[in-house]
Amino acid sequence: MIRAGDRLWRAAGAILLITGGLAGALSDLGDGEGSAVLLLGFPLAMLGLVLAVQGRRAPLAIRVECSRHRLLPERLHARRASRRHER
């Protein structure tokens, strides 16, 4: 079952995906000066796609990756593996 918070993140992702797609479509309709709109629309669409698929896990993963503890699971695993090999 999808929680309300997860549904909100996925809806925000769908909105960003649609906005990015529209920005890309509108850049083709112009007189060739739409490259700035396309450069803004493509990252919006990619961010929207990630949010639409992952939901509330995407901001959490970004937060963990930016924290100073992002390597903690790898270090714990390496320590446990070295203890096993010492025995």
Query: How many β-strand runs?
Result: 0
Portion in strands: under 5%
Tell me about the largest β-sheet: none
Tell the overall outline.
Answer: elongated
Order of helices and strands: HHHH
Output the radius of gyration. Answer: 20 Å
Any low-confidence stretches, pLDDT <50, length ≥5?
none
The number of helical runs is 4
Tell me the structural class: mainly alpha
Percent in helix: over 70%
Mean pLDDT: 84
End-to-end CA span = 45 Å
Could you explain how this protein is built, in words?
82% of the residues lie in helices and 0% in strands. The protein has helices at residues 4-29, 35-54, 57-66, 72-86. The model has no long low-confidence stretch (mean pLDDT 84).
List the helices and strands and how they pair.
Blueprint: H1 4-29, H2 35-54, H3 57-66, H4 72-86
Features:
87 residues; mainly alpha; 82% helix
Summarize the entry for a quick read.
This protein has 87 residues and is mainly alpha-helical. The chain contains 4 helices and no strands.
